[in-house]
Amino acid sequence: MNAPSTPPASWDGQKRNQQARIERGAALAKGREVAGADIVRLLEAVIEPGDRVCIEGNNQKQADFLARSLVRTDPALVRDLHLVQSVLALPEHVDLIEQGQVRRIDFSFSGPQAGRLANLVEQGRIEIGAIHTYLELFGRYFIDLTPKVALIAAQAADREGNLYTGPNTEDTPAIVEATAFRNGIVIAQVNEVVDRLPRVDIPADWVDFFVKAPTPHYIEPLFTRDPAQITEIQILMAMIAIKGLYAEYGITRLNHGIGFDTAAIELLLPTYAAELGLKGKICTNWALNPHPTLIPAIEAGFVHSVHCFGSEVGMERYIAARPDVFFVGRDGSLRSNRAFSQAAGHYACDLFIGSTLQIDLEGNSSTATKGRIAGFGGAPNMGSDARGRRHPSPAWLRAGREASPNAAMPRGRKLVAQIVESSREHMQPAFVERLDAWELAETAGMELPPVMIYAEDVTHVITEEGSAHLLRCTTPEEREQAIRGVAGYTQVGLGRDRRMVENLRDRGIVRYPQDLGIDKRLATRDLLAARNIKDLVHASGGLYNPPVHFRNW
Amino acid sequence: MSVKKTSFFEASARTRIARLVDPGSFSEFCPPQLRHTSPHLARLHAPVAFDDGVAVGCARLAGHPVLIAAQEGRFNGGAVGEVHGAKLAGLLDKAVSERPAAVLLLVDSGGVRLHEANAGLIAISELMRAVLRTQAAGIPVFALIGGSCGAFGGMGIVARLCAEVVMSEQGRMGLSGPEVIETVMGVEEFDSRDRALVWRVTGGKVRRALGEATRLVEDDVAAFRAVTADLLAEYGARPLKPSSLDTLFDAHARLTARTRRFSAARDGREIFAASGFSDIDGVPLMAVDAFNRHLMETA
Fold it and tell me: In whole angstroms, what is the distance from residue A530 CA to residue A544 CA?
């Protein structure tokens, strides 16, 4: 060896630092258990300035008590933090920034706090490392963004500190795996401490401290869509999706984005899709949260399996009673896992379909709007071609052939569909010449406009006017006209070249309901397998227990 | 799972009529092309409807001749204005001369149309008199209630004057509507956004348990049709008796019994308890058949 080598003074500095933190914390704990009244002091004792901290939470489960407690720590002791976490969803997450305790954030999604966050960025009060997809952020937990302290949420702990997450396991395994095995500190808030857990989701020796929260951790019923609010336009779009996309490709493995558009598809499976003879031929295997609107399709025997990112409030008993469909533990309750389900959605599904707010003339789509830094969540991973995929399936192969009919090297292709009404509420057009994402990138100093799904990944755009089969377009001009051809009564839609759109129709690239043999007059709510939440309860045999504000009983 | 039923709750007034009566038998009076619109709304520069929010006409149901009206809840909440009320009152007058098997009122209304002030109030009172006059002539009037606006205000009174009140669980009936009570008495008295409270105080099941609704049916136009056909057959066999002192005594006896049975009840839950239901929380989820069977058994 020619280079002068300076080996580090020791190889276990981080390990010893971890030990020191645990000892400081242990002084405030009984075994691993910390009293609620001591949690603020415990956080002050184990967190050091400059630490990377992960406050667990997603759009469902939130470590809300630990977040509230962190806000109450002394800013002189707990400061310069680098938050590395899936979401900035709670007001407390942003309070920490406003109190000057956080220097930098890396995250995926900020949803409800998007406006406040954009303000803080503009005022220069916070550095954003990057906005990730869930899988990217989880990936970086194991490379260069490993949390030093993870504040997680579980349903229950036993006296030793083994954790039961309940159906909302979500991100916990990914966070704990990275933190616990890389000299970090794992602190869990639990709803209850019991003598014996139904099952162990996280073993005690990966957990340093746990505290019983005064109130159960908050879970947002994010995936519940009341069928009563589904419109006939959405039903028409669902018919176009089922007949023009699902049936045509024989899509069995898929993921649905959240929203009323996809809820309408789920509710049309036992009626419209069944009438088309598609039972067993489409929609058999899912990466999906347990959507209540999927209940009628499950009961009709459409669905063979569902792996879940998280759970959904009120679905617990139904899931437990359908272990052939869902992934459940020996105890009978759901085991969700966001990291695995995201990987499954990316690599093992042939179709992603979801809604968006804006689509440009190339087909880039974005949910970013001016003055709000909302982030990505998981949609970019679901809604992108998996270039590392190698296993074939008929739908994937067919899409690959359509994308490059004359390619020397045959390839498969994931189907990525965007389903939108041409105009949103307040007559805001969904089709635009320039995405708001560009303006947001400028004002927030981002290096890239925050695009949810890139044009090159989008294979289909479905609106109330029809479906644009972008895979079959051969030139950028065709692509633009195909998008204009389904953009309805918007400036983009009105700007279409009618002759070219007719030509695209002849070639089956732009297809209107009549081209697909769909009678628009049949697009009525009579097609829904459930018209309201109560119908879903009846369809579940009384097992689904919807949250109070979704009930009229 | 029942597929492709027509939800009465969601259907428009004309769809309700079309699917309720014998196919193709409906013939509309004062049809849309005559454009009998409200002069009051026009003066206020408010939108008008070509039928002023109600369709009236004659039809057959299971072969029986009926006169029929359906309020359109999607126009001003089915509220009764001068033209709207005149169409309904005229229909009832026509019944006295034409003597159909019954008059069917598909009620979907929050009551008087406030824009029309006195004209709307007068219309309601004329309508009440017309119902009584028609029934005094031996023609029964049936109220069918299952729309999103329910039957409130003046139309709540009109409905209760009818010989039969057929409701679905989604239907609601009352005098002051939930929002009105909240506005006047405060949210502590009645929280109109608490949908569970609204339905267990005004909904079809509690009205049936109280005996104010005489039939409870599924939210399906076919179910409304079936029970209306049964009622037409019943009244065909036993025609409506004109009011007399005896019928008045009967009505008083029924009211006294009801008061005795439910006087302690402050809420729908207590009414269900007093009606002999054991699983009170389960009542809203009970199938209509099971609910009706239980009421029959405990009656």
Answer: 13
Q: Which of B163, B153, B175, B147 is nearest to B104 (CA)?
A: B163
Determine, for residues B285 and A527 on separate chains, whether the beta-carbon distance falls below 8 Å.
Answer: no
The token pair at A476 is 């950028």
Which homologous superfamily is B13-173+213-240 in?
Answer: 2-enoyl-CoA Hydratase; Chain A, domain 1 (3.90.226.10)
**How does A262-274 read in b/e, with b if 16+ C-beta sit within 10 Å?**
bbbbbbbbbbbbb
Q: Do B285 and A552 touch (CB under 8 A)?
A: no
Of residues B129, B124, B185, B132, the one with CA closest to residue B153: B124
Q: Does B6 touch chain A if contact means CB atoms closer than 8 Å?
A: yes
Pairs of residues, one from chain A and one from chain B, whose beta carbons lie less than 8 Å apart:
40
pTM, two decimal places: 0.91
CB B4 to CB A538 under 8 A? no
pLDDT in tens, chain A (553 residues): 566 677 778 999 999 999 999 999 999 999 999 999 999 999 999 999 999 999 999 988 999 999 999 999 999 999 999 999 999 999 999 999 999 999 999 999 998 899 999 899 889 999 999 999 999 999 999 999 999 999 999 999 999 999 999 999 999 999 999 999 999 999 999 999 999 999 999 999 999 999 999 999 988 888 999 999 999 999 999 999 999 999 999 999 999 999 999 999 999 999 999 999 999 999 999 999 999 999 999 999 999 999 999 999 999 999 999 999 999 999 999 999 999 999 999 999 999 999 999 999 999 999 888 888 888 889 999 999 999 999 999 999 999 999 999 999 999 999 999 999 999 888 899 999 999 999 988 888 889 999 999 999 999 999 999 999 999 999 999 999 999 999 999 999 999 999 999 999 999 999 999 999 999 999 999 999 999 999 999 999 999 999 988 988 8
Beta bridge partners of A193: A157
Cβ–Cβ gap A531/B7 under 8 Å: yes
Residue carrying the six token digits 């377009």:
A473
Q: Count CB-CB contacts under 10 A for residue B276.
A: 12
Question: How many C-beta neighbours within 10 Å does residue B163 have?
Answer: 18
**Structure tokens belonging to residue A272:** 């419209």
Cα gap A118→B94, rounded to integer Å: 67
Choose among A299, A529, A553: nearest Cβ to B3.
Answer: A529
Distance from CA of A321 to the nearest CA of B (A): 19
Query: Cβ atoms within 10 A of the Cβ of B36, count?
Result: 18
Burial environment of residue A214 by CB neighbours within 10 A (0 to 12, 13 to 18, 19 or more): exposed
Q: How far is B6 from chain A (nearest CA, A)?
A: 6
**Is B200 an 8 Å CB contact of chain A?**
yes
How many CB atoms sit inside 10 A of residue A182's CB?
Answer: 15
Q: Are A528 and A534 in contact (CB under 8 A)?
A: no
What is the C-alpha R_g of chain B? 19
CA-to-CA distance for A528 and B93, rounded, in angstroms? 41
Which helix (DSSP H) or strand (DSSP E) does residue A65 occupy?
helix A64-71
C-alpha–C-alpha distance, residues A336 and A358, integer Å? 31
Q: What distance in Å separates the CA atoms of residue A444 and residue B225, rounded to the nearest whole number?
A: 61
- Nearest Cα to Cα of residue B281 among B126, A142, B289, B273: B273
DSSP-assigned letter for residue A272: I
Whether A304 contacts chain B with CB within 8 A? no
Note the helical H segments in B211-244: 221-237
Helix (H) or strand (E) holding A35: none
A26 sits in which H/E element: helix A13-26
**Cross-chain residue pair B10–A525, CB shorter than 8 Å:** yes
CB-CB neighbours of A396 under 10 Å: 24
- Give the separation between CA B27 and CA B55, rounded to whole angstroms: 10
